[in-house]
Amino acid sequence: MVPSTTNVKSPSNPVAEEADSPDLVKSGHNSIQQEESSDGPSAIDDNSWSIEKARDLYGVGRWGAGYFDIDSDGNVAVNVPTESGPRSISMMDVIDGLHQRDLHMPVMLRIENLIEDRVRRLNMSFQHAIKEANYQGSFRTVFPIKVNQQHHVVDSIGRSGRPFGHGMEAGSKAELLVAMISVPSLESLIVCNGYKDEEFIDLGLQACRLGYKCFFVLETQDELELIIRRSRHFDVKPCIGARVKLATKVEGHWAGDSGDRSLFGLTTVELITAVDTLKSAGMIDCFQMLHFHLGSQVTNIRNIRDGLKEACRFYIGLIEDGAPLGYLDLGGGLAVDYTGTASTESHSRNYDLDEYCFDVVETIMNSMDAQNVPHPMIVTESGRWTVAPMSVLMFNVLAVTNFDPEPVPETLPENCSEGVANLFRALQNVRLKRLQENYNDAIYYRDQLRDSFRAGRITLRERALGENLYLAIVNRINSMLPQLQRVPAELESLSHSLSNIYYGNFSVFQSLPDAWAIDQVFPVMPLHRHAQKPTRKSIIADLTCDCDGKLDRFSSPSGEVVRTLDLHAFSKEQPYYLGVFLVGAYQETLGDLHNLFGDNNVASIRVTGDGTVEFVEEVPGDTIADVLSYVEYEPHSLLTRFRAMAEEAVRQKKITVEARRQMVQLFRDSLQGFTYFEE
Ligand SMILES: *Cc1c(COP(=O)(O)O)cnc(C)c1O
Fold first, then answer.
1. What are the pLDDT digits (tens) for 421-442?
2. Distant-in-sequence, close-in-space partners of 80: CB < 8 Å, separation ≥ 6
3. Same structural domain for residues 310 and 226?
4. Helix, strand, coil percentages in the chain from 3-state DSSP, rounded to 5
5. Is 206 in the same domain as 313?
6. Is any ligand 1 atom within 6 A of the Cβ of residue 144?
7. Do residues 383 and 146 make contact, with C-beta atoms less than 8 angstroms apart?
C-alpha cells in the first residue's frame, strides 16, 4: 500500500483475506497469538515441555562428550569417571558448596576428573590403534603448556599422565621452566618449540643433562648454530628436531598456520641446509625428530591425513639423507566439537578421537612400509582437546532488558495525534497473510512519528505512546512468523532485534576472550530450571560498557549458528545461573582488564569414588586494589589521598567527621572488594 497520514487501511473483513492461499500458512495455527510474556506457572505445567526437549534445544548430548547432561530435577549434571566407576553430580549443588565457602559468581569451575579422563583416553586410544594395526612404534603425547598454563591444571596433567609417560611442550623460557618441573618421569618427553635464545637453549640442555629427552625443534636456521655451540660448551648431546612448513593447507580459523606462508618452520631448502650443517658438525645423529603443526582445531580429518602424508614423505626423505630420526611429532589440531554438529564447520569437526588415532597410525604405517622405513614413535601435542571440557564458566544473571510493549489501550485515546492514531490502527490491522506489509507500515508510521517529534509537532508523551504501539506491532508480527512456511527475508532478523538482553555477572574480555577475539562459539545453557520451558529469546551481555561485551552466537538444534538463545523468564527474587561450557583451552590467560574487571574466582573440584564433591582448590579473583595496581596505581596512596580529600571537606564543614569516617571505610572496603557484582 502507499501509506498516507490520513487514510489508514481499516481492518475490514480480515476473515476473507486469510482464507485464501492456504499454502502460505501452516494449518492449525490461525489465531493471532501474542507471545507469552513470561514463563510463569503456565509454562511449568506445559505438557509439551520435557527434560528431553531441553536436552535437544541446548544440544547437551551433542557437544557434552558424555560429560554433561540434565538430571531429572532439571539441573545440569556432570558425569565424571572416578576410581570406582562413573558418578554424577549436580552443578547446582556445586554452586551451593561454593556459596557456603564464600566464593561468589562469576566462577571458573574446573573439574579435575575430566582432565584425568582426557589424558587417559588420549593415551589409551592411541595404544589401542597401535595394537589393532600391529604398528611397530609407540606413542607419546606432550601437553602444550600455552593452552592452559595454570599450575593446578599442569600438575593434574602431569599426575594423571605418569603411567603413560605424558610429557610437556614449551614455547618459551617461562613454559620450559614449568615443563622441567612438571614432567612426571624420565619416560616423558619435553618438546621445545618457538624461537629460542641462548638462555632457552641452556635451560633445555640442563634437562638433557638430568636425563630427560628434551627436544629442540628448529624454527629457524640461526637456532641450529646456537644449539651446536652451547651443547659443545656443556658437553651434552642435544636432541634436535625440525619443524617443517608443509604445502598442505587446512580449513578453518588457523589456516594460516599451514601452507607456504605459515609463520613457523623451515622450508625444504632450509631443512636440507640444516642437515648439511649437522653433518659437517659431526652431529647428524642428534637429528631425531620431524615436527609439523597444521594449526589448532583442524575440522576436517582429510586435512590431517593429507598433511601427515606429506610429513611422512619428509620423514622418509630425511632418513634417506642420513638423519636417524625415530620421532614423528604431529603437533596439535585435534579438534573439539563446540557446536555438536560433527561437521567441518569451524567450531566442530568431522571425526572423533578413535578415528583420529586410527587414521594417524594407518597413514604413517602405510607410508613407512612402502619405503621399508621403521615405524617412528608417534608424538602429538593435543592441547585444546585435552583441556577444553574440564572448565565451565558459571555466572548469575543480574537484570534483563526486554523489548516487550507496555499494555496497549483498548481504544484510541481521545485527541491523540494523527501519528499515534495511524500506529494504533496499524496494530489492529496485523494479519497473518500481510505480515511484510504490516511491517512496512509500522516502520513508515514510526518514522513519521519521529519526524513529527523532531519538528516539535508532538510531545514527548505522545512519542512514547506511539513508540509503544510500534513495539506492540512488531512483537505481534514476530509472534506470528512461526506460522508462516516461508518467512520473508526482511522479517527473519526480527526475532533477533526484539530479543531480550540478559545481563550476566562476568566479562567476556576477561573470561571468554576467544568469544570476542575470534568469534569462537561456546555452548551456553542455564544450569537449572530445565523442567520449565524457556520462552525468552535472548542474547547475553556482560558487565563491561563495550558493545562487543556480549554473547550472541549460539549453536542450535539445526546445527546452524543462531543469534539468540532461549532462556527462562528472569525475576530478581530467584537467582538464575548460566554456564558457558568447554572453555578450558586458551581462555584463561588471554583475558584482559577491560573496564578493570579482574580475574574471576576459580574453583577446582574432584569427585570421589563415593560421589562426594571435594573442593580441592580455590583461587579468589582479583580485588579492586589488585587490578588498580596492574595499571600502576598504588592502592595505599589512593586511600591516603582520599582521606585528605575527605578531611578537607570536614574543614570546610561540608561533611561531619562521622560522615568522613564512613566514607573512608567504604573506600577502604571497596579496594579489598571483588571487581564483579557481589551477590
Ligand atoms: C598451539 C600449539 C599446539 C596445540 O594445539 P591444539 O590444537 O590446542 O591441540 C600444539 N603444537 C604447537 C606447535 C602449537 O603451537
1. 999 999 999 999 999 999 999 9
2. 67, 86, 87, 88, 89, 111, 113, 114, 117, 607
3. yes
4. 45, 15, 40
5. yes
6. yes
7. yes
- Do 214 and 355 sit in the same domain of this protein? yes
- Residue 329 Cβ contacting ligand 1 at under 6 Å: no
Range of the domain at 450: 1-35+410-486
Q: Is 194 in the pocket of ligand 1 (CB under 6 A)?
A: no
Q: For residue 162, what is the DSSP state?
A: G
Contact 606, 112 (CB under 8 A): yes
Distance CA 403, CA 498 (A): 6
* Same domain membership, residue 432 and residue 335: no
- pLDDT, position 4: 40
Name the β-bridge partners of 379.
140, 329
User: Which residues, 6 or more positions from 270, have their beta carbon under 8 angstroms from its beta carbon?
Assistant: 221
> For ligand 1, is residue 594 a contact (CB within 6 Å)?
no
Looking up residue 326, the CATH number of its domain turns out to be: 3.20.20.10
The residue count for the chain: 679
Whole-number percent of the chain with pLDDT over 90:
82
Residue 593 lies in a domain: no
Q: Is residue 304 located within the same domain as residue 223?
A: yes
Q: Which of 634, 622, 579, 662 is nearest to 111 (CA)?
A: 579
Q: Is 179 helix (H, G, I), strand (E, B) or coil?
A: helix
What's the distance, CA 65 to chain centroid? 15
Are the beta carbons of 181 and 145 closer than 8 angstroms? no
- Closest ligand 1 atom number to CA of residue 147: 8
Residue 259 and residue 360 in one domain: yes
Q: From the CB of 520, is ligand 1 less than 6 Å away?
A: no
Domain boundary among 437, 470, 486: 486
83 domain-assigned: no
Query: Is 446 contained in some domain?
Result: yes
Residue 560 domain-assigned?
no
CA distance 662 to 371: 82
What's the whole-model pTM score? 0.89
> 220 and 364 share a domain?
yes
CB 72 within 8 A of CB 51: yes
Residue 184's pLDDT band (cuts 50, 70, 90): confident
Distance 192 CA to ligand 1 centre (A): 12
Cβ–ligand 1 contact at 147 (below 6 Å): yes
Instruction: Specify the pLDDT at position 317.
Output: 97
**Rounded mean pLDDT, 398-415:** 90
| CATH number of 422's domain | 1.20.58.930
Residue with CA closest to ligand 1 atom 5:
332
What is the Cα 222 distance to its own chain's centre?
37
Q: What is the pLDDT of residue 558?
A: 86
Is residue 498 within 8 A of residue 474, CB to CB? The reply is yes
Q: How far is the CA of 592 from the centre of ligand 1 (A)?
A: 22
Residue type, 528: H
371 and 416 in a common domain: no
C-alpha cell of residue 288:
631425531
Of the three residues 486, 519, 536, the one that is the final residue of a domain is: 486
Count of domains in the chain?
Answer: 3
Q: Pick the atom of ligand 1 nearest to 146's CA.
A: 1
Stretch among 13-27, 67-81, 364-378, 402-416 having the lowest mean pLDDT: 13-27
Compute the distance between CA of residue 161 and CA of residue 165 in angstroms, rounded to an integer: 6
